[in-house]
Amino acid sequence: xxTFRMKLQLNLYKAxxxxxxxxxxxxxxxTIVTAQSxxxxxxxxxxxxxxxxxxxxxxxxxxxxxxxxxxxxxGKKGLWIYTGILFVILLAGFGVILSNxxxxxxxxxxxxxxxxxxxxxxxxxxxxxxAPHASYFGMFSNNYFLxxxxxxxxxxxxxxxxxxxxxxxxxxxxxxxxxxxIFLYLTGIRIGGLKGGAKILTLCVLNPIYYxxxxxxxxxxxxxxxxxxxxxxxVRLLKEESWKDRVISAILFAVFGITGxxxxxxxxxxxxxxxFCYILDHLIGKKKIKESIQSFGIxxxxxxxxxxxISGLNQSYFETVSAQNYPITHWLMMASHGDGEHxxxxxxxxxxxxxxxxxxxxxxxRMIKNYKSYSFSELMAxxxxxxxxxxxxxxxxxxxxxxxxDQKNTPLxxxxxxxxxxxxxxxxxxxxxxxxxxxxxxxxxxxxxxxEDILQVFWAVSILGGILFYCIWEIKSSYGMxxxxxxxxxxxxxIDESKEKLFQKRDEKYAYKCGWTELVLLVCVICxxxxxxxxxxxxxxxxxxxxxxxxxxTSAKKMEDVGKTVHINQKFEALHSFNRIGLIVSAGDRxxxxxxxxxxxxxxxxxxxxxxxxxxxxxxxxxxxxxLKFPKVTPTKENKDYHLRIxxxxxxxGKLRVWYRKEFYMHSYKGKLKVDGRNHxxxxxxxxxxxxxxxxxxxxQMLVIAGIFLLWTAIVLVIIPKKRCNENVEKGEx
Length: 734
Known about the structure:
With 734 residues, the protein is an alpha+beta fold. Helix content is 62%, strand content 12%.
């Protein structure tokens, strides 16, 4: 029986490792392909677009090998100093984010924050059917708990006299990421002492996604500290010997896990992975089985209590609309066809059924029908596309768009989220390619072992769970970001495996040849830097400096409460020069048939006319973007308010509609809207910016970028061979 359990344990372990390795190899290849198609798409040649992220990946990988080697030789005092430096760098990085960015949320994130403002200001409990976003919260229950947390946080700010709510929410999100990092650091200490903590902290500091993810003030980013806590206390439960420590770990595991579940359900994936690993680790021995029952009993009891409390809190605010909630089968249905992403037609389909039971049955039937329509090869191709979208966009894909609606628009914005963000994205892809390569190596080494490392299995099963979950769920590239920390933990094991291989003993013959290797590699890097740098310098790109930035028509609606005569006046503030204004205008068939026209005029605060033009229905699509172009306008401190007036000279025959932002308490820009003389609390969907055509970089910037790469390469190429040769000399191997 004992032998059977050991074989079962080993076979389960091998199966999980092999399946995870298969997916990680696919993700690695997909990430390289995506990098080649996405980064510097209209700037570099296809060959350079492929080589640049790979070069960054190689340099990062080599640097990590060197750092990890140094950490292994470092004493306790040195490790504490190194760790302190890393935390300072991390905090400085987040300080830069807080001082240079102030993103304004859209879609779901905006609905949550605006509802939180409503709850904080009115104290309404439960909400009425007429409350802002009541229909949204009627459909979706997954954001209830974080909305309530935001409302209570805003109440605290109000009592403290703090009015900058958007900045405070951003700071709260950053604090959550710092807490997640601390939990990861503690996890590293549990598995590898101070060296393990320093290693995982190194990966956190170098991970670019860590710094931009908090700008998405949504459940995805706020779930990360809870996921990190689940991982940490899960590790403690797997390794804890003391009964008292096991009880504490089990309680906190349940508290963070269930609380995180109500913020974002994906937190439950590492919890399920923990259960699998706990069972796998306790297949042998009656004593361990007894410990397992005790730990699971505590987790279950605390989990039920916490779940009941949070569920009751949610219902106290949203019980009037919760009966309208869409069933989870809606998202399973939406993920079963098309591209597996958000689909408006699917929402309309589910919405037509009155009761939750009818919605569930209808969506299940349609989901089954969708899957039955695939052949095996078509199903595999469909899942391949979903995997590419879910896991192969190292920069978060839609994440950058979600956080690009910034209110500060500092010079750094251009290089991280704006017109010149390709270099940052290249680093994101380079980091992911490097991380995935180390993951592959770690999984391969673990697969060859005859005894499992239960912690590595924990990371692998959690990653595998996330991958399989998004094979059947609605996908977006940003949804996989909370799993980045698991990539780091498993990648850390891969780096440790690799460094031993790289720094193994070499004879003098190799040491002599390594000089030629360095020279060839350095020449290759110089060629890549010169060719790509020249292409960057010669490429002309549109550069945007934003004053008002509403992204892609999200959270926007066409203005229906206007008659045949239209008179709209939108006041807005501009702090930067601008020469473009973007609007969304829709025209119906009748409006196009009779060529209805809207007159447009822009004036400054003093009444000086800046622009006069018209919008013709026959030149507007169903949901069309209209760009007004005029010579550059430069605001001053005394004259920074402008008026955009839109009206018609003759009554319209059809529907020619201007779109506005669906805003209630939080506004994406400072403005005041009047429609037919009546004040509106919303503002028009508006883009105010300066557009210029400029080289991607000038000669000086090109030399700085190339210099950084060459210096980085030189350091790596000098240090690695030097360690090889010195080690051989010390061992007397001449």
